[in-house]
Specification:
Length: about 350
């Protein structure tokens, strides 16, 4: 007969079972919990950004697309603080999804490490859309921008989806961090990084660099002369009353039974003011005066569309007010000559 003292108590058995269960549990957070946590955090930042945009709209309008850097600072503060030891490795979204950021030893990370981690993740998004002055828009700069924006963004997305063993993306690999389930308190098992990922990442980076070269060659092969478009862009960009500008030379082809083939060449000009404007038609007329100041063959189009307005964009939130005006070159010239302060109506 066995000694009763050697029989494990129910309490000890339950404790051992829980420890075994925790040991066998996979601590790495899955794709969907991380995605939902990020969605929740993004929604919270969007609400905050909209409130700030309402209060400081004039300031954000004056920043133009560079306001995205302001939004980056807000997001960096939020994610950097809360994903570090100061926030127990959990943003509000991560708390709701019961996941957290840790290192390989299941320890929370420092503030500096958390800031670097989020900067790597956020740079491709917040830098996208920034418009550099034309004098800095050379081929070398374009290659670097393409590598950071498209190459970095594609690599982050690829690893996030396909690195299923550890779910580490570029920012996690660089900082040695993991996103784990907060209710599973066991160290992360070291898993070798699959070498095939290196091939995929190198391919994505190369594609990003080749993209700029291919597009440039494609435009040259089309035989398009963009000199006049670039000159008009530079003229508008250099004017103090215009913060953001875009110029597009387009051709629209259509066919109908009554008129047959129709080819319409139109020039699209977009201009955003560095401040709020009540009468957008007068601002459109001002933009037209600047554009038509130097006569160019680029204005020999069937239709010229000028879209004007003002907007703010801080990355985490944006808002705008725009209006488009569509007239022939002759009509625009008539407005410029005779209606300096009138509305754009014929």
């Amino acid at each position: 007969m066995s000694d009763p003292s050697e029989i494990p108590s129910p309490e000890l058995y339950n404790t051992q079972s829980k420890q075994s269960s925790n040991t066998n549990a996979r601590p790495i957070a899955g794709f969907w919990p991380r995605s939902f946590a990020f969605l929740i955090d993004g929604l919270l930042l969007a609400i905050l950004g909209s409130i700030l945009g309402f209060i400081f709209i004039d300031f954000f309008i004056s920043l133009g697309e560079w306001g995205r850097l302001f939004g980056f600072v807000i997001a960096l503060t939020y994610f950097g603080l809360l994903n570090s030891t100061l926030g127990s490795g959990q943003t509000l979204g991560k708390r709701l999804m019961s996941i957290k950021v840790v290192d390989a030893g299941n320890q929370q990370i420092s503030l500096s490490r958390s800031l670097v981690r989020y900067s790597i993740l956020a740079c491709p998004y917040f830098l996208n859309g920034l418009v550099l002055p034309a004098k800095y828009n050379n081929f070398t700069i374009q290659i670097l921008i393409s590598l950071v924006l498209f190459g970095g963004g594609l690599c982050i997305l690829y690893l996030y989806v396909f690195n299923s063993k550890t779910r580490q993306s570029l920012h996690d690999l660089f900082c040695g961090t993991y996103v784990v389930r907060s209710k599973v308190d066991v160290p992360v098992t070291s898993t070798p990084f699959w070498k095939g990922h290196f091939v995929a990442l190198g391919t994505l980076a190369a594609l990003a660099i080749l993209l700029i070269g291919y597009l440039g060659k494609f435009v040259r092969n089309l035989g398009l002369d963009l000199t006049e478009v670039v000159e008009l862009y530079q003229t508008l960009e250099s004017h103090e009353s215009i913060k953001i500008v875009g110029v597009h030379d387009k051709v629209t082809r259509s066919y109908s039974n009554s008129t047959g083939k129709n080819v319409i060449r139109h020039l699209d000009i977009t201009a955003f003011s560095p401040y709020r404007i009540e009468k957008l038609d007068r601002y459109a007329l001002e933009v037209a005066r600047i554009a038509f100041a130097n006569e160019s063959k680029i204005f020999e189009r069937d239709i010229i569309i000028i879209t004007v307005g003002y907007r703010f964009n801080i990355g985490i939130a944006n808002g705008s007010r725009t209006r488009s005006f569509r007239y022939t070159p002759e009509q625009w010239r008539e407005f410029i000559r005779s209606k300096s302060d009138a509305t754009l109506e014929i």
